[in-house]
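Field log, afternoon session.

UNIT: design team B
ACTIVITY: writing a sequence onto a fixed backbone
BACKBONE:
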């Protein structure tokens, strides 16, 4: 299947396309929908919208995601990866964690990865988040994590969870054994959330 090049300039003037974006934006705000926020963000990035517009959408996504996370933690709910809205929420939190990690905020990154390990309802992703957290606890910089631990060449872009790093240079169970001490520490830290049940 040949992918057609999108004519960005034509899209910027396409009234139907622009009207559709306005509809998505209204729905995003009225439904507090992160999923729609990501759809809008993708389209706005495609048409090279202003930095302010992009930042506004991104801020909306992050704020709603963390409000929802707080609510889920209080109610002891998990994020279902088969629900587009909950998947988008977990994605926003994960991307924020990766950003923290890349900015060398190791404490913030570790806490986000541990909380995702605790709140995602998918075992493979739970393990991946624990490996992220352990890599941070073991003192790996973000660059070291990407170069020596993560396997980013095998990403299946058709998967709805493709934006989570889930492949590593060793099988997950081996990493979890190697990081055994940190896994234990991480689980100790998460007990606080368990005790609130």
């Amino acid at each position: 299947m040949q992918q057609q090049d999108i004519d960005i300039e034509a899209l910027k003037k396409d009234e139907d396309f622009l009207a559709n974006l306005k509809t998505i934006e209204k729905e995003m705000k009225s439904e507090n929908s992160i999923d729609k926020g990501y759809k809008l963000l993708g389209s706005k990035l495609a048409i090279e919208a202003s930095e302010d517009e992009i930042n506004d959408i991104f801020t909306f996504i992050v704020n709603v995601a963390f409000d929802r996370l707080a609510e889920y933690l209080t109610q002891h709910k998990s994020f279902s990866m088969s629900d587009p809205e909950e998947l988008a929420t977990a994605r926003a939190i994960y991307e924020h964690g990766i950003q923290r990690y890349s900015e060398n905020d190791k404490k913030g990154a570790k806490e986000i990865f541990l909380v995702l390990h605790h709140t995602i309802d998918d075992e493979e992703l739970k393990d991946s988040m624990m490996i992220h957290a352990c890599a941070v606890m073991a003192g790996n910089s973000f660059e070291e994590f990407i170069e020596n631990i993560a396997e980013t060449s095998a990403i299946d872009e058709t998967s709805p969870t493709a934006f989570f790093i889930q492949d590593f240079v060793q099988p997950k169970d081996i990493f979890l054994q190697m990081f055994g001490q940190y896994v234990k520490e991480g689980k100790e830290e998460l007990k606080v959330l368990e005790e609130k049940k």
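LOG NOTE: The two ends are 50 Å apart (CA to CA).
NEXT ACTIVITY: expression trials, pending approval
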